[in-house]
Automatic annotation (TrEMBL):
One of its GO terms (molecular function) is oxidoreductase activity. This is NAD(P)-dependent alcohol dehydrogenase. PANTHER family: NAD-DEPENDENT ALCOHOL DEHYDROGENASE, S-NITROSOMYCOTHIOL REDUCTASE MSCR. Keywords: Metal-binding, Oxidoreductase, Zinc. It comes from Actinomadura geliboluensis. Residues 15-362 form the Enoyl reductase (ER) domain. The keyword Phosphoprotein does not apply.
């Protein structure tokens, strides 16, 4: 079928809206008519010079939409179903079987190369040029996307479909980290570094969990204001001096039980660890750093640093949970979203890079 898609042809090129020919869904594949697709900083990996992400490529890994057709062997999904598209995983390894699909050893191969494991491109231009469309098992900056039975999650039809895509990655990562991976509980304290979509989802989740001290740290005052509205009890501008000391002071001198870094800035990660009480846990989800520097004496006293991927969530259960929390008014993730038509994708990218908007969602 003919689809429209935002194609990235080179790391430093703007996106171009193109008409592509998309294959019918094959075994295990699901054709989704996209209602909206969130833009996440991981999509910017397509802009890293080199061969990490094959080009030309359709990016986008926070799609939502309606199932149009399913391939052979797909069960549990029917045309007309409302769905959120999340990350792909193999489903058969020990990690997937023990409810940690984000840590599937095939995570990178299935999601971040944009090429199906069989190597056969599913989309071509009118000239027969292959365009890669398996970014996170979806490539949803498009009118239609081919997902897989593993990453297409059915959701209730009475939620705002065009806004649900970010639940498949960024919002899931922030909320899952707090509620599942770190296991924040009532009365706990947490400091969240970076009040973008992932950090703000973590703030909302900390409030859901009943944390009584929720410190948000960011460089943008507008994001700190939003963090306050979403549940942060204390706000710190990261440009100020001695952030760790200020956080310890907020907690009566001892430090927070949990800290959570979304920035991947090495100095910020060091601060996040230095903000912990002696048995505290620092969760890391940021992408892009090569190395972090850890203070051995801080770790020696019992602090833990924990890498987290996709919030350690199982999308098929956690996405419906987030929607139910939203319905109850306890998890207003829609406050993070600014919508753009798909053909304004370059503006959306500029606005999220500058910090003007938190979570662009592109509407085809
Ligand atoms: C990604 C982060 C980088 C590792 C794979 C999962 N999550 C969201 O974009």
């Amino acid at each position: 079928m003919q689809i429209n898609a935002a194609v990235l042809r080179a790391a430093d090129a703007p996106y171009t809206i193109e008409s592509l020919d998309l294959a019918d869904p094959g075994p295990g594949e699901v054709l989704v008519k996209i209602a909206g697709a969130g833009m996440c900083h991981t999509d910017m990996l397509g802009r890293v010079p080199g061969d990490l992400v094959a080009k030309p490529v359709v990016l986008g890994h926070e799609g939502s939409g309606v199932v149009e057709a399913v391939g052979a062997g797909v069960t549990g999904l029917t045309p007309g179903d409302h769905v959120v598209m999340s990350f792909d995983s193999c489903g058969t390894c020990d990690t997937c079987r023990t409810a940690r699909p984000g840590a599937c050893p095939q995570m990178m191969a299935l999601n971040m190369l944009a090429v199906p494991l069989d190597g056969v491109p599913r989309a071509t231009t009118g000239d027969g040029e292959a365009v890669h469309t398996r970014w996170f098992g979806q490539s949803s900056f498009a009118s239609h996307a081919l997902g897989t039975v593993r990453n297409v999650v059915p959701v209730t039809a009475d939620a705002p479909l065009e806004q649900l895509g970010p639940l498949g990655c960024g919002v899931q990562t922030g909320a899952g980290s707090v509620l599942i991976s770190l296991g924040v509980r009532a009365g706990d304290s947490i400091a969240v570094f970076g009040a973008g979509a992932v950090g703000l989802a973590a703030v909302m989740a900390a409030r859901v969990a009943g944390a009584t001290t929720i410190v948000a740290v960011d460089l943008h005052e507008s994001r700190l204001d939003l963090a306050r509205e979403l549940g942060a009890t204390h706000l710190l501008n990261g440009a100020d001096d001695d952030i760790a000391g200020q956080i310890r002071a907020i907690c009566g001198g001892e430090g927070v039980r949990y800290s959570f870094d979304t920035t991947a800035v090495p100095e910020v990660v060091s601060t996040a660890v230095a903000s912990l009480c002696t048995t505290g846990v620092c969760g890391l989800v940021g992408v892009g750093a090569a190395e972090y520097r850890l203070d051995a004496n801080l770790l020696l006293m019992g602090r833990t640093v924990k890498g987290i991927i996709e919030g350690d969530a199982v999308p098929h259960t956690f996405i419906p949970t987030m929607i139910e929390l939203w319905r109850q008014g306890r998890f207003p993730f829609d406050r993070l979203i600014t919508t753009y038509p798909l053909d304004q994708i370059n503006q959306a990218e500029a606005d999220t890079t500058s910090g003007k908007v938190v979570k662009p969602v592109l509407i085809p």
